[in-house]
Amino acid sequence: MIQKDSPIPIYYQLQEQLKEMIENEELDPGTPLPSEREMAEKYEISRMTVRQAVTNLVNEGLLTRSKGRGTFVAEEKIEQTLMKLTSFSEDMRARGIEPGSKLISFEEVQADANTAKHLSIPPDTYVFQISRLRFGDGEPMALEVSYLVKDRLPEDTVNHLENSLYDYIEQQLGLAIDRARQTIEPSFATSREAELLTIDEGSPVLLLERTTFLSDNTVIEYVKSVYRGDRYKFIADMKRQR
Ligand code: GLP
Q1: Is 18 exposed, middle or buried (0-12, 13-18, 19+ CB in 10 A)?
Q2: Which domains does the chain have, with CATH numbers?
Q3: Which residues does the UniProt record annotate as the domain HTH gntR-type (predicted)?
Q4: Using CB atoms within 10 A of its CB, is residue 134 exposed (0-12), middle (13-18) or buried (19+)?
Q5: Cβ contact 151:110 at 8 Å
Q6: Residue 28 to residue 98: CA distance in whole angstroms
Q7: Is 175 a pocket residue for ligand 1 (Cβ < 6 Å)?
Q8: What is the spatial distance between Cα 179 and Cα 34, in angstroms, rounded to a whole number?
Q9: Helix 47-59 to helix 10-23 angle, to the nearest 10 degrees?
C-alpha cells in the first residue's frame, strides 16, 4: 500500500490512507489506532514517519490522542448553531442524544466586578454560583458555571438543578427567556476542567460566555461554559448584505 519509490512522501501516503479509511467509515469513531511500532512494522516504514502522519491527522481533528491511553479515531463533532437561543438539553435532544446534568457545586457568593457588570447589579450583590457538568449520552461534554441573582430566585433553587435550568426558569418560575449575547473563545483545559471532562490537561476547549435576558430586559443568567474542543463546532448561516 505504501509506495517507497513514489515522489509522494511516505508520511503523506500513510496519512491519506488513514484519512480515507476514516472517511469511508472503515475505521469507526472511537476505534483505537494500532501503536506507532505496530504500524511501522506493518508498512515497513520508520516510527518517525508514522508519527508525522498521525500528528497531522490529530492536528486536523480526525484523530485524538490521549495521554497513556493511545490514539483514537475522533468522534463526530456536534454542530451547534449560533442562530437560535437554545438550552443544552434542547441541543442534545435535537440530535437524538440524551442530555444529562450533574450539580458539582452550588454556592451563595458576592458578585465580583465582572459578574456584576454582566448581571447589571452592584458589585458584592449576592448571587448563586452554580457549577454543572453536562453530559450527552453519559459522556461529559461541557462544564458550566452559571451566576443568577439570588433575590430573583426562590430559596429552594438548589433542589431544581438536576435537569434543565431553562425548563426550571420557564416552566416552574414562569419567566420568559427572550434573548442572549454570547462570546466564544479558544482556550486550554485546566487540570480541574480536564479531570471533569475526561480530557487531557491543556487540550483545546471553547470558552463560551452567555448573558441571557428575559423579555422585560432583566438579566436572568450569566454563564461561563467550557466546551470540549474535540466534540464541538459552531455553525452560522450567513447571507450577504446588499
Ligand atoms: C447552554 C448555555 C448556558 C445555559 C444552558 C441551559 O448550555 N451555554 O448558558 O445555562 O444552555 O441548559 P439547560 O436548560 O439544559 O440547563
Answers
A1: buried
A2: 10-73 (1.10.10.10), 78-235 (3.40.1410.10)
A3: 8-76
A4: buried
A5: no
A6: 21
A7: no
A8: 48
A9: 50
Joined together, the cell numbers standing for residue 22 give 476514516
Q: What is the pLDDT of residue 53?
A: 97
**110-129 pLDDT, tens digit each:** 999 999 999 999 999 999 99
d(CA 56, CA 52): 6
Among the listed residues 38, 39, 35, the one whose alpha carbon sits nearest the alpha carbon of residue 17: 39
- Residue that the C-alpha cell 508498512 belongs to: 43
Q: How far is the CA of 96 from the centre of ligand 1 (A)?
A: 17
Give the span between the Cα atoms of 217 and 103, in whole angstroms.
28
Q: How far is the CA of 155 from the centre of ligand 1 (A)?
A: 21
The predicted complex's ipTM stands at 0.98
